[in-house]
Here is the input.
Amino acid sequence: MCPTARRSISIRDGRGRHALARPGDHRPAPILVATRLTLPHALGAALVDEARDAGGFEICGFIAAAAGGDNKPIVRYPIANRAARAADRFDMDAAEQVAAFKRMRERGETLIAIYHSHPIGEAEPSTHDRRGHSYPDAAAVIAAPNARAAPIRAWRMTAAAPKEIAIAWAGAPEV
Here is the structure.
């Protein structure tokens, strides 16, 4: 899909039912296909801290970039995890997804990634992650505060197998 294309999404609530707000609100913001992500150090630190403080439950949300040049501001949209098994799954709150996509469209932002955490283990896609990733053009960013390897990694979910995407960390790391 081209970077400015829009596509319909199927949003379901925690019980598997469609949960769309009003006609037109369900469209995601444009999606940018990334081969490399440039993210601020502060965003990485915030994701790891939030994941660490989530009490063993997965966190989730969207990462969007403002329209414009190479130094696009990055915006994070945390979304509540409504999964029954939130310790090893995430199921984004449908109403919060719709609101986030609406806000992205209003602000001219582009969805670049969907993030979530792995409270235990590595920042690598699980089988559930691979099956449930509904936006193949958006990167999957996984924060794993207890990982032996890098605590944040990004992936392109493909039909064959996930492919890691390099993350370039912008700005000074927080001390």
